[in-house]
Amino acid sequence: MNVLVINCGSSSLKYQLINMSDESVLAKGLVERIGIEGSVLKHEVPGMEKVIIEKDMPDHKVALSLVIDTLVDEKHGAIKDMKEISAVGHRIVHGGEKFSASVVIDDEVIKAIEDCIELAPLHNPANLMGINACKELMPGTPMVGVFDTAFHQTMPKSSYIYPLPYELYEKYGIRKYGFHGTSHRYVSQKAADFLGKKLEDLKIITCHLGNGASLAAIDGGKSIDTSMGFTPLEGLVMGTRCGDIDPAIVTFIMEKENLDIAGVNNLLNKKSGVLGISGVSSDFRDIENAAEGNERAQLALDVFNKRVKKYIGAYAAEMGGVDVIVFTAGLGENSASNREEICKGLEFMGVKVDPEKNNIRGKDAIVSTDDSKVKVLVIPTNEELMIAKDTQELLK
Questions:
Q1: Is position 73 annotated as part of the catalytic site?
Q2: C-alpha 6: how far from chain center
């Protein structure tokens, strides 16, 4: 079974074609600048040269059509015929309270995704564009929706209700939803497998640390709390997002800087985080390179690491202990110094990182000492494979 995994952004389309018999990637690629001048497709097949195709792509249907043509191309394709694509798995950002698991996409599911647009106005419309393009270009090919929010639907009400008038939850669905669920689910399962333990027997804190970042408390395989909230703005300091701040700051800034709603939203989501503190970049690699001799760059790293550490402590308390801490995503997988700084001071909890073991990038590894009570792991995330697995499972 070959599953085409699609992740649509407002002007982008990421894809992977995965052979589920051995979970190998047959092809992957990225379409950028859809609907914008200079649109381009970057396509890769293992063992072949990367292909770059510059072509005007006014919408997602045209972009997906080019992706399919490229996948079956004689010179740089991965399959001979579209019929070799057994199913399509779509990453969908927001499923609200309607979806606690992945689902086969039908008209009812599409309507439910549309109903969640006001909760994810930047993402769900793009996800729907990908679904509708597939319906037109691949009629009859089954599709599955995998939701970023679904994994966190196991949170108890005490974790997701905000201390606001309760009728705002009833009227508008204002509550914590959490995101990165597919990643948190994948790495927690992989960690249990890697340790040879049953997921049901473990208390795990997963740290998805990248430009967007979140933690999850996973008790017995179920998410009981997570750091992102009603939107991905809550929680950790991120590349450009502020994370947790005093909400009164918002109206204060609006008044002092004469900002409207769009202006303050832009400031909190795109001009804050480590970019706002450092003044250097939203990319942690740039900040790490600048940190020596640059006080603000070092401060940005210190603030980020401290916020992650605080959440680890909080989630350990919430679960009544922790057996495993997992680092994943761009920063979590690749920055030994960040992992070390985050874990420093957690020795009282039984966390001991081995500097030599920790000196790795982007591969499954235990980086804690042999006598560490809490196992600290690096597990590269693979949301695409998780989506493909769900797709295969639902269509069996």
A1: no
A2: 14
